[in-house]
UniProtKB/TrEMBL annotation:
CDD domains linked to this entry: NfsB-like
Species assigned in the record: Flagellimonas aquimarina
Record flagged with keyword Flavoprotein: yes
Residue ranges constituting the Nitroreductase domain according to the UniProt record: 10-186
Single Gene Ontology MF annotation: oxidoreductase activity
Keywords: Flavoprotein, FMN, NADP, Oxidoreductase
Family stated for the protein in its record: Belongs to the nitroreductase family.
Highest taxon of source: Bacteria
Annotated protein name in UniProt: NAD(P)H-dependent oxidoreductase
Length: 210
């Protein structure tokens, strides 16, 4: 089987992690770099990623995550937090980075700047939040698939109270909202779900080629 498909067949939403096994610093750096390199609309990356290593913080997050054991047994808990609202600074910071990285005078980017701002700045605040959360999910998916290539287990999690996460992690005052969580570590031998056959729609049901 092709490695791309093999890795995706191997991974599953790990329900029980081995709390004695930790992701190495070197592998964690690869996961973070893969996430940093993720695509995002306009390249803006309107989110921030929190890497939770502290067992104390994990214990605080567990009760507001439906009591799921992944919170305290996984090696790391990754919280993807989207920017809830933004103004011109989001685009300006990005274009300053483009100018520096590519050695392009900032005036040469004005057309792109005006285009982005015309599409994004007038959006209602709630629409901005939905859009930035979608961008966070792209990065989240990239981290999950990179982990599968390293044979690191993950569990994508939406079963948590965003407002409680925001309070515990101090996100609201940073104009951020916890949108999705990824538990990262290694499966326990006792996790029976690793032996379940993967259930997905058939290609005929899922795809239409026009």
């Amino acid at each position: 089987m092709n490695n791309v498909l093999e890795n995706r067949t191997w991974r599953y939403a790990t329900k029980k992690f081995d709390s004695t096994k930790k992701v190495s610093d070197s592998d964690l750096e690869i996961l973070l770099e893969a996430t940093r390199l993720s695509a995002s609309s306009y390249g803006l990356q309107p989110y921030h990623v929190f890497v939770i290593e502290s067992q104390e913080i994990k214990e605080q997050l567990k009760p507001v995550s439906w009591g799921q054991s992944q919170l305290t047994d996984a090696s790391h808990i990754i919280v993807f937090a989207n920017i809830t609202d933004f103004g011109e600074e989001l685009m300006d910071d990005y274009l300053n980075n483009v100018s520096t990285t590519r050695n392009i005078p900032s005036e040469g980017l004005k057309g792109y700047s005006d285009f982005m701002k015309s599409k994004l700045l007038d959006l209602p605040e709630d629409t901005k939040g939905v859009w930035t959360a979608r961008q966070a999910y792209i990065a989240f998916s990239n981290m999950m698939q990179a982990a599968s290539e390293l044979k690191i287990d993950t569990c994508p999690m939406e079963g948590f109270e965003s407002e409680a996460y925001n309070e515990i992690l101090g996100l609201s005052e940073k104009n951020l909202n916890a949108s999705v969580v990824l538990a990262v570590g290694y499966r326990s031998d006792e996790d029976e779900t690793q032996h379940y056959a993967k259930v997905r729609k058939s290609k005929e049901e899922l795809f239409t080629i026009i």
